[in-house]
Amino acid sequence: MFFRNLTLFRFPKSTSKSLSELETRLADHRLRPCGPIELATRGFVSPYGRESEELVHRSGKFALIAIGSEDKLLPASVIAEALAEKISAINAKEGRRIGARERKRLKEEVVTDLLPRAFVRPSRTFAYLAEESGWMVIDTASRKSAEESVSQVREALGRFPATPMAPTESPRILMTDWLVAGKLPAGLSWGDECELRDPAEAGAVVRCRRQDLESDEVREHLKSGKQVFQLGLELDGRMAFVLGEDLTVRKFRFLDVVLDEIGEEASESAQAELDARFALMTLETKRLLEKLDEWFGLPRPDAKD
User: Fold this and answer.
1) Which domain holds residue 100?
2) Euclidean distance between the first and final Cα of the chain, in Å?
3) What job does the chain carry out (predicted)?
């Protein structure tokens, strides 16, 4: 398994001590099935899959976890149809108008009636914790999903002061400067996509894919005042990604030179394969995180007791 997106949070050095008890703390917060009248549940599941009870996979100072969820699928159109039928029945029987307050109560009754019959959609989000450097890396591009994952860890540990990135250098301005100057920091090379926006409210948006980023077409957009909000890049010929102005890393993938290091031989077990892939991923991702810190300035937060 390799992450496809990286949303980054960082926690203080003092927090690393509590991660030694991670397995014990997560055990009390396992995912449980949705109850008959529950809309959703959240909890931890095994990163190895359904057949395993282990909630943490460790490789050196890195800990892999998986946050599971079960969500009831109850479309608004289904609720609206059932509510309309209920109101029609009341009108036919009693011949009176339904007020807003009663309508709200009837809708709640409809939802309660439908929930036990709703389909359940399971999902899981992977994340890993780097104890020494203080990174929490979450495999999602959704800020909401990432914050929910942090909240689950916080609930399990009791205290987990992880915060989003607070760069000292503006990624948007710096990436725009890179593209305007046609010059990248050492180790970086151009990808083939970007998103340019007029920074004014409701300004124009240009998305380029499979495009030479040093072309005259792209430069004309920059001359008109557009700024870089997403930029396709490659690092050291080993990984490719799209970096956002919020420092979310999208479309993250390893290039052939890295994949060849795993080899084609089958692993002895699912755990052995996960261990090999996770060790490689964290080692390579560490290289990227160090570069992001170097380019944009991403100080590790201090503990606030």
Assistant:
1) 76-116
2) 37
3) May be involved in recombination.
